[in-house]
Amino acid sequence: MVLRLAEALGLPLRQHNALLLAAGFAPAWRAAELGTPELAQVASAVDYMLAQQEPFPAVAVDRQWSLLKANTGAMRLVEFLVGPLPPGASVNLADALVAPDVLRPFLENWAEVVRYFIRSVEADAAADGGNETGALLDRLLAYKDVQSVMQEPVPERDVGPVLPMHFRKGETRLALFTAIATLGTPQNVTAQELRIESFFPMDERTAKVLRGWASPKRRTKHRR
Fold first, then answer.
1. Residue from 133, 55, 123, 124 nearest 92 by CA
2. Under 8 Å CB-to-CB from 158, ≥6 apart: which residues?
3. C-alpha to C-alpha distance for 53 and 73, rounded to whole angstroms
4. What confidence tens digit (pLDDT) does each residue in 147-175 have?
5. Is pLDDT of 69 > 90?
6. Could you give the CA distance from residue 126 to residue 182 in angstroms, rounded to a whole number?
7. CATH of 31-223, one of 3.30.450.20, 3.90.1170.50, 2.130.10.120, 3.10.450.50
8. CA distances to 13, 20, 73, 78, 188 from 43, in Å
9. Which of 149, 154, 185, 214 could bond to 55 as cystine, CB 3.0-4.6 Å?
10. CA nearest 180: which of 196, 164, 201, 162?
11. E-strand spans in 92-189?
């Protein structure tokens, strides 16, 4: 009955387990790290998708936007904007986007992007009712200027089919939009919460820059 109720309500698998525990039953759905043998085929599929996106960036994140995997294109973009990450660094892409001192200085339409992103986190928090997602939302809303951005009226203007992210550092400008993929028919909490975000160039100028970073000649020069 508990499982049928959770399914009828469209709750995530993590919340299925929470309802079962509240009713005095053991959890029905397992959760495992992406690198464990249980999720080996899923991890292999994620690696394949990230590789196919080269030379454009792609990342795999969990429901709280913690970085799980990144392709070389993503690492090149991060290194260009903020410098190389320390080995083994723990990265949360939500914090990196919203915080005042990571990506914000290079994102020309930061307010637009963050307004949309915060709404998506609010939807996640309402859907899963989990403490972790709620804590993430509270943390993001506490960053400088976020509350005022969320209260601003949405500007009336002609809009395209997607909202691009306009990065600028020095004379280099990049316009990127993203697509987010999830696994079909997940039977594991980790698998259900996994997201693969792929970044695509909005114009040929951006595509040329990203392809140029990946060229063998550029990589050799960079190593020198």
1. 133
2. none
3. 8
4. 999 988 776 666 788 999 999 999 999 99
5. yes
6. 19
7. 3.30.450.20
8. 19, 28, 18, 22, 13
9. 214
10. 196
11. 165-169, 172-181
